[in-house]
Amino acid sequence: MLQIMPDNPFELQLGPILGPYHERRDTKGLSWQDLYICAGNRTYLVGSQNGGFPDFGHHVKLEMGGLWLHPIKLLDGFWLHIADREGGAASDGSTAMWLTESDSFHNYPFYNEHRYRLEPLELEVVRRQFCPDDEEGIIVTYILRDLSGRGRSLDLKMLVRTDLSPVWFSEGNGIEDGMDEGRIDKACGLFLAKDERNPWHVVVGADRQSSGGAVGREMFGPHWTSGRGIGGSLVYENVSIPAVGSEAIHFYMAGSNRSEQEALQTFAKLRDHRAQLWEVKRDRYEAIADRTVVSIPDKHVQKVFDWVKFHNDWFVREVPGIGRGMGAGHPEYPWWFGCDNSYTLLGLLPVGGLAMAQETLSLVLKASEEANGNGRIIHELSTSGLVANPGNTQETAHFIQCAWEVFRWTGDISFLRSVYPAVKKGLSWLLEDMDPDGDLLPEGYGIIEIEGLNVELIDSAAYTWSALLAGAQMAELFGEEEVRARYEQLAARLGEKINRELWIDKEGLYADAMAPAGKIESRIDIYIERAQAFGALDAVGDLEAIKAELAGLDPACERPWLFKNWVINTPMETGLSPRKQAVRALERMATEEFTGPWGTYLSGMYRDQMMTISTGVQAVAEARYDRMNESLRMIRLIASTFNKRLPGSISEMSPDYGCFVQAWTNYGMTWPLMTFMFGIKPAAYRKELTLRPRFPDGWNDMSAKRIQLGLGECANTLDIEVVRSEGEDVCRFELEQPGWSVTLDVLQPADGTCFVTLDGEPVTAEARDGSIVVAIANAGKHELRVSRTS
After folding, report:
1. Which residues constitute the signal peptide according to the record (predicted)?
2. Contacts 24+ apart (CB under 8 A), 273-279
3. CA nearest neighbour of 230 among 186, 265, 178, 266
4. Is the peptide bond before 120 cis (omega within 30 degrees of 0)?
5. In this predicted model, what pLDDT tens digit does every residue of 340-397 receive, in sequence order?
6. Model pLDDT for residues 276-291, shown as the tens digit of each residue
7. Cβ–Cβ < 8 Å for 639, 304
8. Which domains are assigned to the chain?
9. Is the backbone of residue 307 left (phi > 0), alpha (psi -120 to 50) or beta?
10. 514 with 503: CB under 8 angstroms?
């Protein structure tokens, strides 16, 4: 229940599981640009950590903050005014003041607090907010505590500023924002508002009857906000606070994009079931925390790993009539993306997000089929239901690769069957529509949109190779032998072509693009001028070297070009690159030319911006080739930006700007650790599991518990523990449901001599490429020991 601890009214009884998760920041003098989110799957609130509600945003200009109920916005913000009826004086001689700038901000997994110390009024105040699951509203609680030692009587005024308005890109549906209209329902003590042109409504009230209220077009709180909203205030007189005691007042803010009646029903539910709604959300977050519980030597990485599990839930966006799935980034990208989710969903799989991964892919696929119908996967879907970008070339291949990984973890054959027709269409689109010259390298923009160069790009090529292999395995599963053989043949040809023609041996790197010299020449001066304007001398030098190479080349001459963007890591990320080439490229990518103080540069030419996804891809690429020390370095760089902007979070742009939380950050934090270091690779549809633990130096005692494998009939749960010492290595694991086949693949001692036991009994193990491999049929709970002999 929502209990206040007797010795401290500012803490909730979170219990032992969630209790440790609390990050804070002093906020006096903090910039309004330091934002936070109070997350929910239906509503969410974005404001400043200092307690304000600034106008900001570029998708919906100046309107990306406030209270959102997609596909509409409800409120710009809300403010509490406190007046002391009997004593206390503010610095200006008054006995009243607005809650404006907080002293500190406190972030918890599913709620947040702003804490104020009002010395003139001899009060402490906490503002606490949370968005209940599946509800179209928010609950905001103010706890007022006396510091004077005497009983108090206060008058409170809650002022809200509406901004009932549509999400970005809604104009494509012919939606026009109208002016908001408001009224006070004195009998019920509510403020109600609606948009004059649309059935959008918001209702605000408290857990007690107001003594009055007012509405005004020019009614604002401590600061003005933009938009077509209206102000509404509710007054609560004679709120009593005992001496050195506290009193809480709960506000309920509910909305609907369909009717006032629905908004009123939600308001009543929030009011009447506040404690139960909080318990439900707390219990669900306890379940998130209690899933995939890792213990590793690096406790900071472990802490960030745990917070990232909560971040995943902050992105779940559900919109009736449109769908449910993972959004991309707060505050500017809360809707759905093809590219982002092909990374995000892999990071979601090892921490229990199997069903959400399928839901998200199904939503993206449905929108893609409706918008394109030819297998092309969309880039961006607004919560208005409109596709803003039909999709870059890379996204179709990336989606196919992701869908296969999701299937391997879930084992849900009905899901794969629903996706497979689009997979075949998508591969045809890539290798026919997008490959007019028939060289197997699809054309078009990839992740990095090099302006004017929608040519044959390395990321599109590498992911198409991976997609062909995935398509071949799908075809085999569905008994389409000819399709399987064709996809495998194409993958072999494409992989050989990439490794031969896009590999630049003198650089020890893969090229960004294959393009005719004339196309590069037509843009190179623009790129040089841009680099000069940025003062990027390294980029200027690199680009001028390219310009010199162009001299005398036939404009039709097609060749590889190196622009040093981070996507040249994708051949290693996917495992396409032969080991010798991969190690050579990764070693250069790990130098100061490509890696900065917070991660992998977006561009090795410019060397000024780093991102969690570029660093995450490098972490995966390093782990793919068993370079676990190097992979850990990248993971640590991501983790080093934790708390830099939002307490409890990691910014999209490293170390502290862009979106203050980004979904695809989980890819670099969870995928290399769980699938390469712990080595967990399920084929749930066959009830098979490979465990191939490989850890960084010095990591000698690791465990991961309650890892979800499979859905439905394929469901299982895994615990794994690895302990290493000078004398022996021990791997223990347990499957909750016996019956799966498990292949254990552990490192062989350097000198090759060892004694192997399984469950205490000697076992003959297969030696394979420096590994010891043991197959266990009908696996349950087992212990493998590899003892080094003298």
Report:
1. none
2. 274/2, 274/139, 274/207, 274/250, 275/1, 275/2, 277/132, 277/133, 277/135, 277/139, 278/1, 278/2, 278/130, 278/132, 278/139, 279/1
3. 178
4. no
5. 999 999 999 999 999 999 999 999 999 999 999 999 999 999 999 999 999 999 999 9
6. 999 999 999 999 999 9
7. yes
8. 15-285 (2.70.98.40), 291-512+562-675 (1.50.10.10), 678-788 (2.60.420.10)
9. alpha
10. no
Give the pLDDT score at 13: 66
Can you name the residues that pair with 730 across neighbouring β-strands?
A: 723, 785
b/e burial code for range 57-95 (CB count within 10 A of at least 16 → b): bebbeebbbbbbbbbbbbbbbbbbbbbbeeebebeeeeb
Contact 747, 741 (CB under 8 A): no
Supply the pLDDT for residue 790: 54
Distance CA 26, CA 106 (A): 9
Answer yes or no: is pLDDT of 219 > 80.
yes
pTM above 0.85, yes or no: yes
Q: Which tokens go with 553?
A: 């080349």
Q: What does DSSP say about strands 688-691 and 323-326: parallel, antiparallel, or unpaired?
A: unpaired
Give a three-class secondary structure readout of 440-476.
CCCECCCCCCCCCCCCEEHHHHHHHHHHHHHHHHHHH
Evaluate whether 612 touches 603 at the Cβ level (below 8 Å).
no
- 33: alpha, beta or left, given left = phi > 0 and alpha = psi -120 to 50? alpha
Q: At 586, list the tokens.
A: 């990764």
Q: What is the rounded distance in angstroms from the CA atom of residue 619 to the CA atom of residue 782?
A: 30
